[in-house]
Design brief:
heterodimer; A: 384 residues; alpha+beta; Aminopeptidase; eight-stranded mixed sheet; seven-stranded mixed sheet; 15 strands; 40% helix; globular; B: alpha+beta
């Protein structure tokens, strides 16, 4: 028989952490590990957020965990349940292999009866090849299933690492790619470039470097989604780094020339999956294409550790496409449970859904050039 | 994050190229690559051996192949073996073959390239003749992105309407332990003692097990078909029985192709040389699939379906398979073995066109019926739902 526990206190989230982490590793979901989510709670959770972490057990074994939080303040009284760690990258409930359906039913029943009652269950950056959206909808108790809307999808280029070694993988790339990369590496070595991975000792300084380089890159491009997090972000990253780096799962790569950092890139690992979180590089070293070099270094390291896949994160930017041999998209979806408040919820959600529909229609209707002009106009209008 | 200047490299990979094969003869030249894709996806019902046999023996009159092949350079990276039937009052449906036999049908792609392949397939479908009004993805693994990927990849200013209207569970057995013995030891003591008892009773009655060979194939398939039909007598409608005399030659066709590769596993339980049960399993990639089976009622005390599944699990461990899919339906004997569920879903994509309103109107009764069924199942106690089912089965068809 399955038993369900709803964890509503942050302090209680640590209790199942070892088993929870095993599930994150088994699901190869780096952002869903307690070593990432607990620091997120402590530093970045939105004001007023209340944990609603559903732990599902079969006997004493933890077979599923859905770390939701209730947010009653962001949408004028609409009560949203979201997965902790609202990054734009691969979030999902966790379950033992093959038991997602069973776990989803238990999670849905727990959410349907908890307080405050959810108006919206948001599944953001959910892997599209996962069954969670349909499973939660199907498992929701009551005569009427929740209404489900998948309103946005995003590409996530991936690099499969199924070759025996980095050399084999590299040999399988195009001649043009190989010669470009060799040239970049030669240039990097010629200027005395060196790589190092952050350690517990260097962590605070390296995180500061990462964020400095990251925000510098964004200065002329608008605002990074990390900017609003302010000083809370380095504190969160430091705590997560402290919990994960000794297991080799918090990989902050710093490239230096003559002791000066020229790029810093953060990757997270779990169960053979490596996920690119974010990075930054110095404009003055653009000629070395630090981003490409960092990706190469990460792939080499991932082969050494026996990882199976590198997820380059949301967005199909050109530097990612150079490495990617696949795409594993994520989607943004909401479930709106039936109830007296459903019409109001639907009304409050309609503008957001309409905005995304309009954006999708524009993407389909307009040429890339027209889209770029539209984006430019929107950015100017938005900033004025 | 801002994009790095793309000047130094021509970043985007070349677009996938695609073609549509409309003649069965044209499929032989892609056989090996197609089989590779099916192995990579672990989908037994999507192998060329299975689907071409379906075409030769079971395809409905008027069906015509519309197989989309997607290439990256010379390499085939995706394949969607659709067929068309000009169906209800001129509506053109594109479907994947074989849903009458078993679920878990899907287009095929190299792992990680599904999205790219879906875009290419959608591009070909919009140019195809006749143009699809509806693309049916029936019995598609729920944990796959195909329906959404085809919708997103559909060219043109308006995306197709996507409706998922049914979901069914498929119990699965994960074979992650080091050996059959380790797996068996991990089951409940009740299960272990029951299975040991059944095995002892079967042995004591002179029971033996054998797998079909090239020599015994035809006769064994006859036994399988006969037993399956006898199991269904007076119990309603079996899709397999409905194929009549065409089913045995189809299975024989598949068997002749896959037996030597140990991918066609017809398991017979016999007592004193007389078959008491026959179960068909297919293997592809790292998965085994339970297709169907039958047994004679007078031997039901041995629970032949359970003994057969236990035997195939032992076989699967020996061959290094990672998962046994027990097929559509959550019957009690399957649930004794299952430790997971990998459901399949029925989806339709209704293509944007002048005929969309008509297509939707024609699809509406199916959508409404399944919605009503689902609501009934949710709203009523299980006992009432059973009574309703019984009442419905008594009504004249």
């Amino acid at each position: 028989m399955l038993s369900v526990e709803m964890i509503v206190e942050v302090s209680a989230m640590r209790e199942p952490a070892p088993e929870w982490d095993s599930l994150a590793v088994a699901n190869a979901m780096p952002l869903m590990s307690p070593g990432w989510i607990i620091p997120w709670w402590r530093h970045l959770a939105p004001p007023g957020a209340e944990p609603r972490v559903v732990a599902v057990r079969d006997g004493s074994e933890l077979i599923g965990l859905a770390p939701f939080y209730a947010d009653a303040y962001s949408h004028r009284g609409r009560i949203d349940y979201r997965l902790c760690g609202s990054w734009r990258s691969r979030l999902a409930p966790l379950a033992s292999a093959g038991r997602e359906w069973e776990v989803a039913g238990a999670v849905a029943r727990a959410l349907a009866t908890t307080t405050p009652q959810p108006d919206v269950v948001a599944l953001e950056a959910l892997p599209l090849s996962s069954p969670w959206l349909a499973a939660l909808r199907q498992g929701w108790p009551g005569a009427i299933r929740p209404s489900a809307r998948l309103y946005l999808t995003g590409q996530c280029p991936v690099v499969s690492l199924h070759e025996d070694s980095f050399d084999d993988w590299f040999a399988g790339r195009s001649a043009k790619f190989r010669s470009s990369m060799r040239r970049l590496r030669r240039r990097f070595e010629e200027v005395g470039g060196q790589w190092r991975m952050s350690t517990l000792t260097t962590l605070p300084g390296d995180i500061a470097t990462l964020l400095r380089l990251h925000f510098a890159r964004w200065e002329s491009h608008g605002e990074s989604s990390l900017a609003p997090l302010g000083q809370r972000l380095p504190a969160m990253l430091e705590e997560a780094g402290g919990m994960l780096s000794q297991q080799g799962r918090f990989r902050l790569w710093v490239a230096e020339v003559a002791g000066e950092p020229i790029s810093a890139d953060l990757y997270l690992g779990a169960g053979g999956e490596v996920l690119g979180f974010n990075g930054g590089w110095s404009e003055s070293w653009k000629r070395l294409s630090p981003q490409l070099l960092a990706t190469m270094r990460t792939i080499e390291d991932a082969f050494e550790r026996g990882d199976r896949r590198l997820d380059l994160g949301l967005g199909d930017q050109s530097h990612k496409a150079r490495f990617a041999d696949g795409n594993d998209p994520v989607g943004w979806a909401i479930l709106m449970p039936a109830g007296r408040r459903l019409p109001l919820t639907a009304m409050r959600t309609a503008p957001m859904l309409a905005r995304h529909s309009a954006r999708a229609a524009a993407k389909r209707l307009l040429s890339p050039g027209q889209l770029d002009r539209l984006r430019g106009a929107r950015a100017r209008y938005g900033h004025s | 994050m801002p994009q790095e200047g793309a000047k130094a490299f021509n970043s985007m990979p070349p677009m996938a190229e695609s073609e549509m094969i409309v003649e069965l003869d044209g499929l032989d030249r892609v056989y090996d690559d197609w089989d590779e894709l099916a192995r990579a996806a672990g989908l037994s019902q999507m192998t060329p051996a299975w689907i071409l046999a379906w075409w030769r023996h079971l395809a409905p009159i008027g069906a015509a192949p519309r197989v989309v092949v997607v290439r990256d350079g010379a390499k085939i990276i995706g394949l969607a073996p659709f067929y068309i039937m000009e169906g209800q009052r001129g509506r053109v449906d594109y479907r994947l073959p074989g849903i009458e036999l078993a679920a878990r049908l899907a287009p095929l792609a190299l792992p990680g390239r599904e999205w790219e392949v879906a875009e290419a397939i959608a591009g070909v479908l919009t140019e195809a003749l006749p143009r699809p009004d509806l693309v049916a993805l029936e019995g598609t693994p729920l944990a796959s992105a195909w329906p959404v990927a085809l919708r997103e990849g559909w060219p043109g200013p308006i995306s197709p309407i996507l409706r998922q209207y049914s979901i069914y569970g498929c119990p699965t057995v994960a074979l992650r332990e080091k050996s059959f013995e380790a797996w068996f030891a991990g089951k409940s003591s009740n299960f272990r003692s029951q299975m040991r008892r059944l095995q002892r009773q079967f042995d004591a009655a002179g029971g033996s097990v054998r797998l079909s060979t090239q020599e015994t194939l035809a006769a064994d398939i006859d036994v399988f078909v006969r037993m399956h039909a006898s199991r269904w007598e007076g119990k309603g409608k079996s899709n397999l029985v409905a194929f009549g005399d065409r089913l045995a030659p189809m299975l024989e066709d598949v068997g002749l192709r896959l037996l030597d590769e140990e991918r066609f596993h017809l398991r017979l339980l016999e007592i004193d040389g007389e078959p008491i049960s026959a179960q068909l399993f297919l293997a592809t990639g790292s998965n085994m699939l339970y297709m169907n089976g039958g047994w004679y009622d007078q031997f039901s005390r041995f629970k032949p379906s359970m003994l057969g599944i236990l035997g195939v699990i032992e076989h699967a461990f020996g061959r290094g398979y990672r998962k046994l899919d027990l097929g559509l339906g959550q019957q009690a004997y399957k649930l004794r073995f299952a430790d997971g569920n990998d459901p399949v879903a029925w989806n339709v994509l209704m293509a944007p066109s002048r005929r969309l309103a008509l297509t939707y109107a024609r699809m509406f009764p199916t959508l409404a019926r399944t919605h009503l069924r689902e609501t009934t199942r949710r709203a009523l106690p299980a006992k009432w739902v059973d009574r309703l089912r019984t009442l419905r089965s008594r009504l004249p068809h």
